[in-house]
Amino acid sequence: MATPTSITTAPPATPLCEIEGLRIGFRGHDGRITEAVRDLSLTLAPGERLGIVGESGSGKSLTGRALLGLLPSGAQWGARKMRFAGRDLISLSARERRRLCGAEMGMILQDPKYSLNPVMTVSSQMAEALRRHEPKLRAKALRERIIEALVAVEIRDPERVADAYPHELSGGMGQRVMIAMMVSTGPRLLIADEPTSALDVAVAMQVLGVLDAMIARHGAGLMFISHDLPLVMSFCDRVAVMYAGRVVETCAAADLVHASHPYTRGLLAANPPLIDPPEELPVLPRDPVWLNEVIR
Q1: Number of folded domains that form the chain
Q2: Is residue 225 part of a domain?
Q3: Which residues contact 50 (CB under 8 A, 6 or more apart)?
Q4: Domain that residue 128 falls in
Q5: Which residues of 258-288 are buried (b: 16+ CB within 10 A; e: fewer)?
Q6: pLDDT of residue 158
Q7: Whole-number Å distance between alpha carbons of 268 and 291
Q8: Does residue 10 form part of some domain?
Q9: 3-state DSSP assignment of residue 204
């Protein structure tokens, strides 16, 4: 069995956010707590694009939601350290955490069909977010900010889109609106949870281009949650591989193809090439040792 290793170079000395020893659990009907995230540690530097990959249920989305304080009400969680821009998130009150959400931290959800309110126009939803953090904005200035945000994500007819309802938008347009909503307040941390999974390849590349431009413009750090390993290798700077609630390997995105952990190798093997694909996909092996091994 291969020994887990970390291939990456260390992130900068002053990270934008730090997570150390994060645990998230849920109490079952029998009273026992099942941990969905177990002793997880991550760092993210300003301007860095960190990909988080792993199977469904490995704890990727819960990790992102923990940073924003958006865990389900039944979640029981704790961490040795959770800091953002030098602030201790664990000691912040619920009100202080809410002030950070949107203003300095934002989350782009997976599918705009389920993330946007179907009975509100785009401008109404964007105005709601802007007013929360800038309550003194007058109507004219608010409209200008909304149009400006839509133009920034390369929407050609921002006036029409601003007055449209979500069902009147294509998937790619809806995802651009989601990005515009999140970046309109200039957050320093963006968490993108499968932002392109509902899009075709061409539209997904356009959305990623918009997202990349927004990160460069605001100098934001990006936590990019995805199942698409080739996409992560081409778009991100660094990758964390999660298995059963833990990070089992980290590496530079360009080095992911050379990763050594057997779980990561199994994930890579499950993405066959389009040219000369194998006749059968390999079965991903499981080893109980992975649940508690020490990552070096």
Answers
A1: 1
A2: yes
A3: 42, 44, 221, 222, 223, 224, 236, 237, 238, 239, 240
A4: 46-65+93-271+282-291
A5: ebebbbbbbbbeeeeeeeeeeeeeeeeeeee
A6: 93
A7: 20
A8: no
A9: helix
Within-domain flag for 28: no
Q: Are strands 189-193 and 221-225 parallel, antiparallel or unpaired?
A: parallel
Region for residue 254 given its phi and psi (left: phi exceeds 0; alpha: psi -120 to 50; beta: otherwise) = alpha
Chain segment 137-192, per-residue pLDDT in tens: 889 999 999 999 898 888 889 999 999 999 999 888 888 888 888 877 778 899 99
In a domain, 13, yes or no: no
Can you read off the two tokens belonging to residue 260?
Answer: 């050594």
Of the pLDDT bands very low, low, confident and very high (cuts 50, 70, 90), residue 295 is low
51 with 226: CB under 8 angstroms?
yes
Contact 110, 174 (CB under 8 A): no
Q: What share of the chain is helix, strand, coil (3-state, %, to 5)?
A: 35, 20, 40
| CATH number reported for the structural domain that contains residue 252 in this entry | 3.40.50.300
* C-alpha gyration radius of the chain: 20
- Identify which of 270, 263, 257, 260 has the alpha carbon closest to the alpha carbon of residue 291: 263
Cβ-based neighbours of 211, under 8 Å, separated by 6 or more: 108, 179, 190, 192, 195, 222
- CA distance linking residue 161 with residue 165, whole number of Å: 8
Distance between CA 19 and CA 270 in Å, rounded? 29
Sign of CA dihedral 275, 279, 281, 283: negative
Residue of 70, 91, 87 whose CA lies nearest to 79:
91
